[in-house]
């Protein structure tokens, strides 16, 4: 996960710059983008909402694992596994936050 999320989040500023540049410099881009964003398969959401999804999802995943951890038996293998997953997710999120 770390090899995927960290570079993606680090490049968010570049993604935004590229998006803005395409809107300004490519006359066809806004129209095509508008048609795509209106498509029900995209739930009529803007492209920018999809660009932020990976970071939002890893944050939700951390909360999910935290809730799983609260419901595991103390000292069990499940608790150990959930603790490792939770700590790894915390580390990834912390690194993502510091790289933005």
Automatic annotation (TrEMBL):
A GO BP term, please? regulation of actin cytoskeleton organization
Which InterPro entries has this protein been placed in? DBL_dom_sf, DH_dom, Ephexin-like
Q: Which organism is it from?
A: Nothobranchius kadleci (African annual killifish)
- State any single GO MF term: guanyl-nucleotide exchange factor activity
- SUPFAM superfamilies reported in the protein's UniProt record: DBL homology domain (DH-domain)
Stretches assigned to the DH domain: 1-99
Q: Name one Pfam family in it.
A: RhoGEF
- What name goes with this protein? Rho guanine nucleotide exchange factor (GEF) 19
